[in-house]
Amino acid sequence: MAETLETPPEADSDAVWLATPFVQQLIKQMRAQDSHGHWDGKSDLQLLKPFILTPEERRAIPLLGDPDPETLWHLEIFYNAIAVAIERETGQMVSPMMKMHHEGFGRMVLLAGRLVVVNKQLRDVHRFGFPSLAKLAEAGGKFLDEAVAMIRTYPDVAQYGA
Amino acid sequence: MAETLETPPEADSDAVWLATPFVQQLIKQMRAQDSHGHWDGKSDLQLLKPFILTPEERRAIPLLGDPDPETLWHLEIFYNAIAVAIERETGQMVSPMMKMHHEGFGRMVLLAGRLVVVNKQLRDVHRFGFPSLAKLAEAGGKFLDEAVAMIRTYPDVAQYGA
C-alpha cells in the first residue's frame, strides 16, 4: 500500500500535470499561436518550456527597463489560458485586461460580467516563469479554482446585464 | 410660478453643472495636471473646453490610425474624475484600467475591490468629447450614480478581501 503514496517517477508526474484543465488550455493556446506548424514536432512538455525557469535562469534575467516582449506575450498566454479554462468550467465569458505601469510592474485582471474573478498585481514581470511544470500547473489551477468559486458565489454579478 | 420651470440663462445653467460632484472632480484633475500654473488665469469653464466638441469639430477629426495622445489623456482624466468622485461618495478605493485594442477601439473599466463599477466599451476615441457642458456633466454623473448604486447593491464584492 505504501508505494502508492510515494512520489511517482517524473515522467508519470508530468503526465498527470499535463492532463489538468488549465495546462490543457495552455497547450492549446500555445499551439494556436503556431500558425505555420513550426512546433508540430514539439511535445507538449517542450512547448511549455518558456514558462519554466530554473532559479539560475531567473537570476540571470536583469530587472532593468521594460520586460522582454516575448515574456509579456507568455504572460498574456498564461492568463488567457486561465480565462478559457474558466469559460469551459462555468459557461461564463471571461476577458483579460492588463495594465503595465513601468519596468515590470502592473496588474492583470480577468473579468466575468461585472465580477473580477482573477486579480493579480504583477511585479518583476521580466522573470515571469515557474520553477517546474508542477508549480506552473498548480499556479494556473489555483487561479482557475478561485475564479470558478467566485462566479458560483456571486452569480448575479458575473451575469450582470447579460 | 411658471418662470422657475423655464430654462435658465446659459451662465446660470453652467454654474449648476460646474457645481456637480463629477464636474468638480474633473476640474480638480485638470488643475492637478497644471504643475507650472500656466492655467491659473483660466476659468473652470475654459479648463473644460477640451472635453467639449461641437458636431462640426467632431466631424472634422479623422478616424484614421491611433487617437491623438492628447485625446487619450483627456479620456483618462474623464474616467479618473469619475473614479475619485466614486471614492468620495462611497469611501471605497476605485482603480481605472484601460485597454486600447486598435485604432480608437477599446475598453475602460473602473474597479472597486472585485466589482466592475463602470464598464465602457470605447469606440471612435479620436472624437472623444461632448456637445456641451450639460452633456459632459450628465455623462459623468450617470457613470457616478450607477457605480455608487453597484457598490451599495454588492458591498461584499466591492469589499472582497479588504
TrEMBL record, chains A, B:
| InterPro entries (UniProt xref) | NifX-assoc_nitrogen_fix
Q: Under what name is this protein listed?
A: Nitrogen fixation protein
Organism encoding this protein: Hydrogenophaga electricum
Task: Show the Pfam families listed in the entry.
Answer: DUF269
